[in-house]
Amino acid sequence: MSDRSKDQKSIAELTQRAGFIFQGTVEKLQSATMSVVPITDSTVVVRVDEIFRATPNLGDFTGKDITVQLTTPHKPRIGNKLIFFTEGWLYGNSIAVLEIRRFQVNDANASLRTEITNEIQKLPDNELQKRVIHAEIIVVGKVLKSQAAVLYRPSRMTEHEPDWWEADIDVQSLEKGTYSKKIITIYFPHSVDIMWYHAPKYYIGQEGIWLLHTSQIEGTNAEFYTALNPLDFQPKQKLERIRSFVMQLGVA
Amino acid sequence: MIPWSMSNETHQDSEPNVAVNPANPLQIAASAFTLDPFRVSIPFYSPIFISIDGGNTWTLNNIVPSAPMTYDITIRFGASSNILYAAILHSPSGLMKVLRTNNFSSGSMTELTSETRASVDMPYIQATTVIGGIDVGKDRIYIGNNDFNTIPNTAKIDQSLDAAGLTPSFDSIILKTRPIGGARQDGPAIRPAIHPSGVVYGIYYGYTDFRGTFAFGGTATCDVVVVRDNNWGIGSRYWDLIDPTDNLRGIRVAREIEVPWGSQISVIGQERLCGSHLSIVVHPGDNRMVYIAWADRQVSTGLYTLHVRKSCDSGRTWSASDIKTLANAINPALAVNIRGKVGFLYQQHTISHDTGLGGWDTHLELTDNDFTTSDNLVLATVPNEIPVQYFPYLGDYVHLMAVGKDFYGVFSTSNLPDMANFPNGVTYQRNANFSTYTLLGTDGTTVIQPSIDPFFVKVTQIPDTSDFYVRDWTNSTISHDSGLEPSTNPIFFQTSDIWNRHNNSPGVFNMNDQPDHEIPQMDRNFAFARICRNSAGTSESVKAHFLSSEFGIGSNYQNVNVDPFAHDLDVNFSSDMLMTLTSGVRWNLPLFSSNHLRLAVEISTLTDPIIPPSLLGHTPGWPTTDLMIINDNNKAQRNMGVYPISGVGRVSFYAIIHNGATFPRNVNVLYESAKKIENKLQYARIEIIGGDSQPFQSGNIITLENMQPGENRWIGLTLEVPNIGDNEIISVMFYEIVNKMTVDGFGIDAQPSTLSRVIQDNLEFHASVFKRISVTFNIDWTEEESLAAQNLLFQEKTSSQTYLDFLHVHAKLIDIKLPEFIMSHTSVDPFGIHIALKNLENAVQRMSHNDPDNMVQQGDVNVCVPTHSTLLHKLDAFVTMLQKSKGDPADILQNVMWQRDLYSKIVHLKKLEFSAQIVKRSEEFIHDFEMQKVGNTDYPKLISSLLEIFRKTSEALVSLNLQLEKDVEDMTNFGSETALQRMHRNYLLKLQSLDKNYNH
Q1: How many other C-beta atoms lie within 10 A of the C-beta of residue B709?
Q2: Is B39 on the interface with A (CB under 8 A)?
Q3: With contacts defined as CB-CB under 8 Å, which chain A residues touch B45?
Q4: Residue B758 and residue B864: Cα distance in Å, rounded?
Q5: Rounded-to-5 percentages of helix, strand, coil across chain B
Q6: ipTM more than 0.90?
Q7: What does the pLDDT look like over B41-71, one tens digit per residue?
Q8: For residue B264, what pLDDT band results from cuts at 50, 70 and 90?
Q9: Cα distance from N-terminal residue to C-terminal residue, chain A
Q10: Rg (CA), chain B
Q11: Closest CA in chain A for residue B89
């Protein structure tokens, strides 16, 4: 592997790991924008010039000073323009982030910005691809029946009770794995408790693509297909993309 | 609490919890179902809220290893370790994990892997730090949890007795022992409550039946069960409360109640119900006083209802009815502050009369009288219109805690920015426009949809400007008591800001900012105190009241003998002052008193009074294990014997151990020294007067068995005087231990000094001890002894030779006359005075090795000095023993409390028709004494008024052959309050003998 490909890989990895990627200008050394931050030699204030990746919850920090806790050697100087890959730390009247890696902004790495942008655009696909890889079977279909799971007998009473339901899906096509029947029954938690609310709920008439995994369902003493991650159910419009991922696996 | 930088968030941040660092209440942590703001950070963490300014501002700190948030989470700080602990249900695994960090604003929390477990629900953590005794400094955590691994008995407390240790171990205790009936488990809420004395309570819903399902709604039939362990959860393993109706573990405060369950039909105002609404709290100053709250569905009304009840006897019995009842209310959270004020945080669903629409009101009620009256603060009153994102909507619980006098709480509710929703005011950190009732993003323009946010509330009982305190300890100019309640240093009697001087000058503070205390002298002394507050701002007058008691453990305080009789001193604080010294309060050490005393001060203002009771008539630790000195920053005591030592040989010191309780007990005294001076104590011995002596072993406990109420015993410390040039102070601390917990303590500092200083000290001591004997027993020769020593002291400086000449003459004189004095009072010589006297004689006349022909010549002054000192200490303690045998006015209140307890608890007495009357009279006297409405001079009046009852008691118990008639007769002819106290005590001792199995 060439050095260049190493860099490419690292940019991909960094982009995946870093929740806040931005270009900034070092404003102050050994300083912080929040009193709660313990100041060390590695604490610097950076003005955010351009944001590549951030959570929408954070709002737009462009033009604002934030605190960066450096983790890599060779301390920057005031005025240095750098691209920071960071992860979250403190969020108050400003934010403080932990550096994962930084790059100088200069002519030698002019393509870096493009690479980062490209990697960020790939992120949703990357996540979906991971789910495709780990799915045992993938079906396209339509929910025919959705009801409380017949076999489910909960052994405990808890507010985190999943309240398992079962959905019968009319299989229109099998995209991955082995399954020969026309109807497949999947389990899903009907509960909207904190522990389960994020898991997709399935209702009669719903159509789409299910990325299915087998799970041991407590209270049934058996394994059932489940699609618990929000990415495990996709609209039919994503079919070509998912097929391309399956093709890459060569296991369809 | 949502910070400005998270202004764009719309998540449902429900089920909050809060932890205040008792060692630094500016540090506060809080939790809720709050998402990792970036949601992609690897490794995965979720945030807690932190504040380092007492809750004024909040920051999210992404340190909890669970993502994108935790499921259940509760958090608590150790009491003085600064370590934050969390018990969570981890996402995505659902495992229960216990986490900790010693720096809550930096770094991440680490997992205590031995406690990681699957199939557990609703872990609820409490933590403390052992403040004294054997395990001083260890963090103890208690996690109530519903453990499905032990179905059907699922209510558990998991505990670690050294949670800050390298690899903490956990003990998991199933609480339920009753038949489970038709249920398969207990309820999810299991709440522990810890008292610093080591008493641990727990409360849970013990299920007996369950109908229905969670998904579609069901009903649990259950008991509300309170359990208790008197010794950190390892004593009886929570068997210290037994229900008398079935002899099983735990008192059932409520039985066969109905608790609705479910997220579809068992709902109030969009919130589900799941049996999570339990709370328990123990009064930090009195481990017997416990409050609980629970919820149930009233059969008569069908309404979901909160109940609050109280126990004053450690959970054995409970108020017959609710002291507070609330319909349609959830999330009870109780707290009791150091002064006994109760805080009750809850959320109540309301229906508007005008609109018919539902809403949620969050209340914090504060009461001093069990809700007869209360300050009812409506913290929030919001429409119930924010859509549910998931359950719980507001949370299955909220939390309220007290640190010192202040209350700290957290709750979740609608963040719609409308001041009308927050009648007591609110401060948003996130962007909001209260005029347009809109939340705004970080850009200040984007409108953000309202959601559920956590809100923090702090109720300050006394502002810093008016919260005056006397330091319990000072280590240096930067490390000292800052007024925390309780204070955090286990040694609260060595470097306190109360001290004595021989003249009306406070002396010079040393480089560590500690005052220069002088051992009280005969006749005239001056008591000083340094009074502080943490913020300037108001001019106030602070009253300072000085007290003293015997040096040692357990002796009751009395007012210092002031001249003129004005016990209180007014100290004026101008508005800009943070600290001032009192002027010296002149007090007299009576000629018949030992100068081995402890001193205390109590300060008060109209708005900042002491926590009752006063130390007057009391001793720290009794009648309860209330640490009344460290719990109340208005009180401080100095209980140090600082003795100069010099010469060659051994020297002995003594202290009184007094049983300050109202029942017989074994008194345990732990002694210890710093490791660095252990080599200086390798030949030291600890002596129990009338018992054994043992080699000094730092950390050992000596037990004084079966001490009767008011009984005194003595312990002694004998050590080698260090070599000349070794000037390190030999400091030994003694602690009274109850349930492994320190309730009182004193210290002995042997301070290497020059020979001339110790000669001076010995002569002063010689003069005072023999004066005491002269005054107390009217013996002429001891007066001459005292005068002889005083005459020598009048000389400018006593040379070694002059001192030896003095001893040469007086050792012989004493040897002739002292044994007669001793034998006239006792047939035994408990302190070994005879031997000490012989040792002194031998020292002053010992054979010279250099001149064997001259057999009797004056000895070595280096040997004489510690030998003389030892004789005087023994004699001083012996005289005190003789004095105490004649009665002790300091024990008058203790006698009355003991009398009350005997007549209310001992079966033979309790059944007498007049017992209620004597208990009532005793209670009134105790109350008035503690309020300082009556004093020792009113004691004879009380006893006179009770004589008839004493006579009737004597007649009623005549068959038991207690021979009480003589004691009653004695009390009719008492000569002094002191004598009356002794006679009364003799009477009570005989009554005490009726209780063969007194068991506390």
Answers
A1: 25
A2: yes
A3: 88
A4: 11
A5: 20, 35, 45
A6: yes
A7: 555 889 999 999 999 999 999 999 998 889 9
A8: low
A9: 30
A10: 32
A11: A195
